[in-house]
Write a structure and sequence with these properties.
The chain is of the alpha+beta class. The protein has a domain of 419 residues: Gamma-glutamyltranspeptidase, small (S) subunit (Glutamine Phosphoribosylpyrophosphate, subunit 1, domain 1). It has 18 helices and 21 strands. The protein has a seven-stranded antiparallel beta sheet. The chain has a seven-stranded antiparallel beta sheet with strand order 5-4-3-9-8-2-21, covered by helices on one side. A hairpin with a 2-residue loop joins strand 16 and strand 17. The chain is globular, with a radius of gyration of 23 Å.
Length: 609
């Protein structure tokens, strides 16, 4: 590996020549929704018989305590997400949605739970268009009530706990209630996110400004921050169970508060009791593919991230000698960027809520189709990527939309002492979602993930907004198997770039045999339209001079990348976790190496409402 000094000289030479430039700092974008934390910090790692990796040390600590008490990965997940709703509300919360991959060690089965938000029954395809039929400015759309989807997070957590939990539901929520009631010191990232939300616009909701901007300024960093309304919401969930959010007194409170907000947004047609009561977590089949001498399983549609991740790895494997590659090989990095771009062209065109038909996810991974796409990349590497026609489809049935935006997201990855694994990605969309508060909860704005324009050139867009539909997502929680057993689990926030980030991490882990610490800390690159983003100031320096990545068809720029990978990997019979240092992520573990319970699911000790 080149020493830092030659790397620095090479970078300065490139910058002085003008071929690479650092991108101007933007407050928010569809590809970099939350900037990385400034400065360098150690990469948090932990190893043992059980591991929790989350985006915040308070969430990881609370989850680990649950595991030490004999809880399962599902119990710890409920705890970690509930705590994140209190301490990291800019990224996820009870009024958001998410996807869960859960490995049930006793049953030797991988469960997939879809807790994505749903468009209410009053939705119309043009809800995010101006009166003249043009798409609303994105920043304006993020604050509209029409952007809020029916939340799925509570339903997903409740269902996962009911099936896989061991401790009581109330025990799992208690740490979040205590933090919301007694308070916690706001983290630097939370305070930066409040400032960012203020720049985007918060004047449309007085409850938000009263809580997060008292007196027009973020809360003091040295004083306990409290959210008593959220504490009461969590206490209601303890008393009445997760169903209270959808069919009980809490549901009625949510509907009342949404109705009051409706008075300030005349275009919003409101939610009905049926919108909440009819919400259901959907169980889906994992999307799996044999890649890199492993079986990789991830989220199927309505996630496009899973398709994009598996396509990227397949295309890269077809176009590069991966077994002979290394992190210092510029050709591998260049081909990775091209594979990302061609995978994006397919996923952003084809993927939509499968309620309207199965969709071509499996066909997009067909080996013959992948080979044809890889041959196109080799023959015309500078060609602009376009969606292909997978096997069994003879025409392009949809209009081609503009690329959408995805924003505030978080990742939790957990393995317990019984061998169960949770890989969970959740989101409220933009930083602090819609910046509306209801019952102390940050309300999502996930319906901006639908195409704003429902038709393009007189053709319906696949990912158009319709009642009861779930918008396309890039979230892609993932598990990796070897000889039928899980050996790695991961996921990341990062908006539209999620499959780009995960493909690079898996390349490092499974091909370059990097440690979990180096896999999450190595630099990222991301294909953006006709250009290429190279991570500026990555936690682990670039292993090659950056001028070697510059090509005529992929003009590059330097830019910080706000990933938040949470990874656990089994190495020599022990689980190792690593948290992305670009955020406040923390990995914690139970050091006990005993494996006597590795195939035994504990006795059910739950006592639920």
């Amino acid at each position: 590996m080149p020493s830092p000094a030659p790397l620095l000289r090479a970078l300065l030479l490139v910058l002085s020549a003008g071929s690479l430039a650092a991108a101007a700092a933007a407050p928010i974008s569809r590809d970099d929704p939350e900037s990385s934390d400034p400065g360098r910090k150690p990469i948090s790692t932990a190893a043992g018989s059980a591991v929790v990796v989350s985006a915040n040390p308070l969430a990881s600590s609370a989850g680990l305590r649950v595991l030490k008490e004999g809880g399962t990965a599902a119990d710890a997940l409920v705890t970690a997400q509930a705590v994140l709703a209190v301490v990291e509300p800019q990224s996820s919360g009870l009024a958001g949605g998410g996807f869960l991959l859960y490995w049930d060690s006793q049953q030797q089965n991988l469960e997939v739970l879809d807790g994505r938000e749903v468009a209410p029954r009053s939705s119309r395809p043009g809800d995010l268009l101006t009166p003249t039929g043009k798409p609303l400015p994105w920043r304006e759309a993020t604050a509209r009530l029409n952007a809020i989807g029916i939340p799925g997070t509570v339903a997903l957590l409740w269902e996962a706990h009911q099936q896989f939990g061991r401790l009581s539901w109330g025990r799992t929520l208690q740490p979040a209630i205590q933090l919301a009631s007694d308070g916690f010191l706001p983290s630097p990232r939370l305070l930066r996110s409040i400032n960012l939300a203020q720049r985007i616009g918060v004047g449309h909701n007085t409850a938000f400004t009263a809580l997060y901007l008292p007196g027009g300024k973020p809360p003091p960093a040295d004083q306990a921050f409290r959210n008593p309304q959220l504490a009461r919401t969590l206490e209601a969930l303890v008393q009445h169970g997760g169903s209270d959010f959808y069919r009980g007194a809490l549901a009625r409170q949510i509907l009342r508060e949404m109705a009051r907000l409706q008075a300030g947004d005349p275009d919003f047609r409101g939610w009905s009791p049926t919108d909440l009561s009819s919400y259901a977590v959907l169980r889906r089949q994992p999307l799996c593919s044999e890649q890199l001498k492993h079986r990789i399983c991830t989220m199927p549609p309505p996630s496009s991230g899973g398709v994009g991740l598996l396509q990227t790895l397949s295309l890269l494997n077809q176009s590069t000698d991966l077994p002979g590659s290394s992190a210092a090989d510029p050709q591998t990095w260049r081909q990775l960027a091209r594979a990302q771009a061609w995978a994006d062209a397919d996923r952003l065109y084809w993927v939509h809520d499968p309620i309207d038909g199965g969709g071509p996810a499996a066909a997009l991974l067909d080996p013959a189709y992948i080979k044809g796409r890889a041959d196109m990349i080799k023959a015309k590497p500078a060609a602009e990527p376009a969606p292909g026609l997978p096997p069994g489809i003879g025409r392009y049935p949809y209009g081609r939309p503009n690329q959408g935006r995805e924003q505030g997201t978080t990742q939790v990855t957990i393995v317990d002492r019984f061998g169960n694994i949770a890989s969970y990605t959740s989101s409220v969309e933009t930083v602090f979602g819609s910046r509306h508060l209801v019952a102390g909860m940050v309300m999502n704005n996930q319906l901006t993930d639908f195409a704003f324009e429902p038709q393009v050139d007189d053709q319906a867009v696949a990912n158009r907004r319709l009642p009861g539909r779930r918008p396309m997502s890039s979230m892609a929680p993932t598990l990796v198997f070897k000889q039928g057993q899980p050996v790695l689990a991961l996921g990341s926030p990062g908006g539209r770039s999620i499959p780009h980030l995960l493909s690079r991490v898996l390349l490092a882990s499974l091909v370059w045999n990097e440690s979990p610490q180096r896999s999450v800390g190595m630099p990222h690159l991301s294909s953006r339209g006709q250009g290429l983003v190279l991570e500026q100031d990555p936690p682990i320096p670039w292993p090659l001079p950056l001028d070697q990545l510059q090509t005529s068809d992929q003009p590059a720029r330097l830019q910080r990348v706000g990933s938040g990978t949470a990874l656990v990997q089994r190495i020599n019979g022990r689980w190792h976790g690593a948290a992305d240092p670009r955020r406040e992520g923390t990995a914690l573990a139970i050091a006990d190496l005993s494996s006597r319970h590795s195939r035994c699911q504990p006795q059910d000790l739950k006592s639920d409402p």
